[in-house]
Amino acid sequence: MKPVSRTKELEIRLGSAEQQVQLLQKISRLMAREVPLAKALDKVVSLVVEFMHSDSCLLYLLQDKELVLCASNNPQPDTIGNVRLKLGEGLTGWVARERRLLSVSREAYADPRFKLFSDLPEDSYEAFLSAPILVRGRVAGVINVQHRAPHSHSGGEMELLTTVGEQVGCLVALAALDAEKLAKTDLLELVMAPARG
């Protein structure tokens, strides 16, 4: 294998950085526009698959102490809203409970924390990368990226998914706001009130 020149290596890294910025910009635009949450989450998982060159992206949100599958780039019949995990259950539940990123480069299905769902073909995939979705420091869900073949996740991929998880947390928080109330809110007062107290 011929070594890559330093210039070529820098060009590749710059191209990757530009792609990451584009992904984050597209998710940011979902936050700025009035898009229904389900549609926004569907768009996020599609964007993540495209930009991370993965085979799957699953997004779970927390409801009544359970993680519920809310979006998938390849949803199987009857899985959205029906696949549920308790905190600590499976790899996804572990990420939520521990509030930590998890990267498994091969044989994710052999990890002792793994839980099999026969309805999810992704359960047979090799590589697994998962980040918590956070809202103001609290876990609101988990986002998973999977590859069919073994895949060593780079530091950049891990950081990118962590940032996407934070952006999805903002999408969730914004969806919980009442648009009419937000329009009447004195934004300057929100900024200045803590400084006065």
Describe the fold and architecture.
This protein is of the alpha+beta class and 197 residues long. The protein has a single domain (6-196), classed as Beta-Lactamase (2-Layer Sandwich). The protein is 46% helix and 20% strand. The protein is built from 6 helices and 6 strands.
Class of secondary structure makeup = alpha+beta
Strand content: 15-25%
Number of domains: 1
Low-confidence stretches: none
Going by CATH, what is the homologous superfamily?
GAF domain
Please identify the top-level CATH class.
Answer: Alpha Beta
* CA-atom Rg in angstroms: 18 Å
What do the pLDDT scores average to?
Answer: 87
Largest beta sheet, briefly?
6 strands, antiparallel
Brief sketch in words of this structure:
This protein has 197 residues and is α+β, with helices and mostly antiparallel strands. It contains six helices and six strands; from the N terminus they run ααβββαβββααα. The protein has one domain (6-196): GAF domain (Beta-Lactamase), CATH 3.30.450.
Q: How is the topology of this model organized?
A:
Layout: H1 6-32, H2 37-52, E1 56-63, E2 66-72, E3 84-86, H3 90-98, E4 102-104, E5 127-135, E6 138-147, H4 155-176, H5 179-184, H6 187-196
Antiparallel strand pairs: 1-2, 1-6, 2-3, 4-5, 5-6
Features:
alpha+beta; Beta-Lactamase; 6 helices; 197 residues; 6 strands; single chain; 6-stranded antiparallel beta sheet
